[in-house]
Amino acid sequence: MPVKVLAHDTRLEGRTPASSSSCISFEVSDETHITDFFDRVVEIADAHGGISTLYLMCHGVHVLGADTAALQFCHEMIAYTTVHHFSRLRGKVERIVLFACHAAETSMTTHGDGDELCRHIALEAQAEVTAAREVQTYYREQHCMLFFCEETPIQFGEWEGPVVVYNSQGQIIAQFNNPSAWRSPDGVLHDPRLDPRVSTGRPVY
């Protein structure tokens, strides 16, 4: 029976959600080669009759000097130079969800290629891809008693801002828009689910 898989790049700070009977979780880092990641995903898919949803938790980044968008995932990152690896997931993964800021961004680079990168992921994997265009907020908390502290697993909760769904042909098949995360004049990032944006009579970025 197909399972869900969640892969967390530990440069996105926080505790990785634990595995369960329906979702296998594991970590990658700057030291994990992207081929090793795909080896593991293919192995899981073959052992469970496929993967229904593959979740990737990581930072979305703008590669300085190259003017391209990428996902800070594994040593090589997910970018135009590595996106071809997703072809190994054809027929094994139904859906990919990118829990990353600006994954489908169209204005961070002159080419708007966050959107194009997501299209290529969908085309290479022949899978549906869901990604956000703006910054995303997530929760990570610590509960301490005496000399012991325990951190709760990362929780992304609801999406913020525009979210796009691509089909296996790289075409946009759905778009929806939730309240966007916003910054106050002192630069503090606010989660719109907890702190709705209040009009001050001037723009707040």
Please give a handful of descriptors for the protein shown.
single chain; 205 residues; alpha/beta; seven-stranded mixed β-sheet; two-stranded antiparallel ribbon; 2 helices; 13 strands; 14% helix; 33% strand; disordered C terminus
> What is the total number of structural domains?
1
Shape field? globular
Order of helices and strands: EEHEEEEHEEEEEEE
Give the C-alpha Rg: 18 Å
With strands numbered from the N-terminus, the spatial order across the biggest sheet is 2-1-3-6-7-10-11
Strand content: 25-35%
What level of helicity do the residues show? 10-25%
* Number of helical segments with 4 or more residues: 2
Termini, distance in Å? 45 Å
Number of strand elements: 13
Derived structural class: alpha/beta
Uncertain parts:
199-205
Question: For the report, how would you describe the main beta sheet?
Answer: 7 strands, mixed
Mean residue pLDDT? 87
